[in-house]
Amino acid sequence: MIVLKDRQIGPEQPVFIIAEAGVNHNGDLQLAKKMIDVAAAAGADAIKFQTFKAEKLVTRNAPKADYQKKSTETGESQFAMLKKLELSEQDHYELFAYCQAKGIRFMSTPFDEESLLFLHSLGVELFKISSGDLNNQPFLHKINSLGKPVILSTGMANLSEITEAVQILSNCPLVLLHCTTAYPTPVEIVNLRAINLLQEKFGPMVGYSDHTLGTEVAVAAVALGAIVIEKHFTLDKNLPGPDQQASLNPEELTLMVRQIRNVEKALGNKRKECTEIETANKLVARKSIVSSQFIPSGVTIREDMIAIKRPGTGIEPGLYSKVIGRKAKVDIAPDQPLTWDMLE
Q1: Are 141 and 239 in the same domain?
Q2: How far apart are CA 71 and CA 65, in angstroms?
Q3: pLDDT, average across residues 118-126
Q4: Are residues 104 and 130 in the same domain?
Q5: Taking a C-beta distance cutoff of 8 angstroms, is the pair 243, 234 a contact?
């Protein structure tokens, strides 16, 4: 269980929904604030940004990923692209305060130690660590020294790598997110059952970071027991930037949150019993033993004198054999549900 100031994250709690703004603000503070408005209005628990200095994140000549090449300027290095997407420290202060005013939790993924310590000083309660840093052991050790709750994505990783990361983060309350690092992720490689594998191996504190198009896969993850859902969103999929097209628009984000909350309600409590609403329908939908003809008082009831029909207000069908051979205490009209006070 992760315990925050005003929220708990765990198997018996509402799913913690992270609206991932990422870098879809394009380095524009006002755009970032509009994204906070959208995430709060959609009902997300948190909005998450990314905190980095391009100089500390990537070499100056590092190439872009293929998906980044398709949606950003050609001939531009990954460094140049990321440099335009940075948020300043002052931006962070403003966004943190704006989230508080809007009633939504501010989160951000640090990509280097300086960014980590800055977010720590800012008062961020909960760190999200990207899949790309799962095997960055020096960074994980630094995170562990702070002892704050951590949500760790596991894209590109195998079980042994995840196990090593979990062991390093021994001082941090931890949620693992199943994740496939592809933007967008084809549904045939999502492998949602890996959520159950992680639960078996590491316990119930497992969620899902979704990069598929649409909302259905994230909702299905909740049905499999995911306690955290993270999903990219944007104000407009036509905006420039590497992640816009693989993100939800505001209407889709609102839909996903509503679908997740409905699935949570539908999952129930693992008990199988007649509900209060079903009790009234039970009398109408179930059947009972009824007379198939007029049965005079004093006549011994034979099999051909009775049938099984709705409603369920009479003797239950399972007691059929106990009715046969008994005498009618009163005249019984045809098509009448039998009750024990009609019989001797």
Answers
A1: yes
A2: 10
A3: 97
A4: yes
A5: yes
Please report which helix (H) or strand (E) contains residue 342, including its range: none
Same domain, yes or no: 260 and 281: no
Cβ(268)–Cβ(304) below 8 Å:
no
- Point out the domain boundary residue: 220, 250, 267: 267
Worst-scoring range by mean pLDDT, 66-80, 115-129, 164-178?
66-80
Q: Which residues pair with 3 in a beta bridge?
A: 8
Torsion of CA 162, 163, 165, 171, to 10 degrees: 140
Q: How many domains does the chain have?
A: 2
Q: Tell me whether residue 3 is in a domain.
A: no
Alpha-carbon gap, residue 172 to 124, rounded angstroms: 14
pLDDT digits (tens, 9 = 90+) for 196-228: 999 999 999 999 999 999 999 999 999 999 999
Using the structure block, give the residue that is written with the tokens 């628990």: 45
Q: Are 217 and 192 in contact (CB under 8 A)?
A: yes
User: Could you tell me the residue range of the domain that residue 336 belongs to?
Assistant: 276-342
Q: Which two tokens stand for residue 321?
A: 């054999």
Whether residue 4 lies inside any domain: the answer is no
Question: What is the C-alpha to C-alpha distance for residues 332 and 341, in angstroms, rounded to an integer?
Answer: 11
Name, in order, each residue with C-beta under 8 angstroms of 165's C-beta and a sequence gap of 6 or more.
Answer: 134, 135, 140, 152, 157
Which CATH number covers residue 280? 3.90.1210.10
pLDDT band at 70 (very low <50, low <70, confident <90, very high): low
Listed residues 240, 267, 294: the one ending a domain: 267
Residues 164 and 160: their CA atoms lie apart, in Å, by: 6
Which of 34-48, 75-89, 273-287 is the most confident on average? 34-48
Q: Are residues 136 and 75 in the same domain?
A: yes
Could you tell me if 291 and 336 are in contact, meaning their C-beta atoms sit under 8 angstroms apart? Answer: yes
* Residue 337: cis peptide before it, omega within 30 degrees of 0: no
Question: In terms of Cα–Cα distance, which of 204, 151, 203 is closest to 177?
Answer: 151
CA dist., res. 85 & res. 27, Å (int) = 4
